[in-house]
Amino acid sequence: MGLRNLPTDVARTLTSLIDDAEPGRISSCSLTRLSDACQITLLSFAAGESVSDEEYPADTMYYLLEGCASITFAQEGRAPVPLAAGEVFLVPAGVRHAVEPAGAIKLLQLSL
After folding, report:
1. Between the CA of residue 42 and those of 28, 76, 79, 81, what are the distances in Å?
2. Distance CA 16, CA 52 (A)
3. Which phi and psi (to 5°) does residue 86 adopt?
């Protein structure tokens, strides 16, 4: 495993490493080479876009870089968890969940 798509000439903010998503799209930028052990991905959601329920075989950390969002759960009765810029949340392996932005967002997802 190794890292990629990171600056090596000058320091930059994480948000500058991915462009704002075009309307109707979600953009992604992998920061790791292909690996089953660890995946680090920057995501940019256009306003109105979301990710449907997903389940990962590894623990998944979400760090919201810009905007506001909620992590919702397929498990009945589990309340959504709101996220504001600068906040982090962990979803354990095997838990079905979705990312529901409130407008355009940028998000760092780390699974290991």
Report:
1. 6, 29, 25, 20
2. 26
3. 95, -5
Q: How many alpha carbons lie under 13 Å from residue 33 in its C-beta half-sphere?
A: 3
**Whole-model pTM over 0.90:** yes
Which amino acid is located at 35 in the chain?
A: S
Average pLDDT over residues 11-30: 96
Reduced to 3 states (helix: H, G, I; strand: E, B; else coil), residue 111 is strand
For 50-108, what is each residue's pLDDT tens digit?
988 999 999 999 999 999 999 999 988 899 999 999 999 999 999 999 999 999 999 99
Distances (CA, A) of 80 to 2, 4, 63, 104: 34, 33, 16, 18
DSSP category for residue 82: E
Bridge-based pairing of strands 51-54 and 81-84 is unpaired
Structure tokens at 12: 């930059």
